[in-house]
Amino acid sequence: MDQTADVTAAPKTPRRRRGILRVEALLAAATEVFFEKGFEAATMTEIAERAGSSIGSLYQFFPAKESIADVLRARCGDAIVDRWDALRQTGEAHTPAELAEALFRTLAEARAAVPAFALLDAVRNTPGVNVAAVRTRIMASLNQLLRSRIPALSETELRSTAMVVLMMLRGGNGVQASNYAFDRSGAMADLRDLLTHYLAGKMAR
Prior knowledge:
Residues 20-80 form the HTH tetR-type domain. The chain is mostly helical. It has nine helices and no strands.
C-alpha cells in the first residue's frame, strides 16, 4: 500500500549523476503508468515497480505522485515557454495565418520534446507547489508573444486574447492526445483555420 504523504511537498533535486539518472528513470516510468492507468488510478508502488526501483527510493525523491506531476508539469511549461520566447525574438509569424501555424507548430515541437506532454491536461489541476508558477510563466510568455505581433491591443484585450488563444491551443493538444478514431489532420486544420480567423480580427483593429 502506498504511504501517506504531503501532496504539496516539493520533490527532491538530485545532485549526483547517479541520482539524476534514477530520477529520469522514475519520471519515465511514471509517465508510462499515468498513460496506462490515468493519474488518479496510478499508484506510487506501480511507478516504483515499473522503474525497477524500491518504493523507498521513489519516496526519497518524490513524496507523492502529485510531486511527480509537479516535475512533469514544469517540464511541459519549460518546453512551451522556451519555444514561444524564441519565436517572439524572430522576425517570423506576422500574419494571422503565419502566427496560427507557428503557435500550433511550436506546441507540436514541445509535445515531441517532452514525452509526458500529452498528460498535461491530466495533471493540470492536481495539487502541487508549482501549479500557479507554471501557469503564470506560460501566460506571460504568450502575452509577450501576442504583444509583439498585435501591439494595438490594450492590456485588458491582450489578456483576454491570450486566454482565448490558449484555449484553442489546448484544443489542439486534446486532439493529438485523444484515443478516438477520427481525422486528426483535418481536425487540426480546422483549429488552425479558427485561430487564424480569430487572430485576423484582432490584427485588423
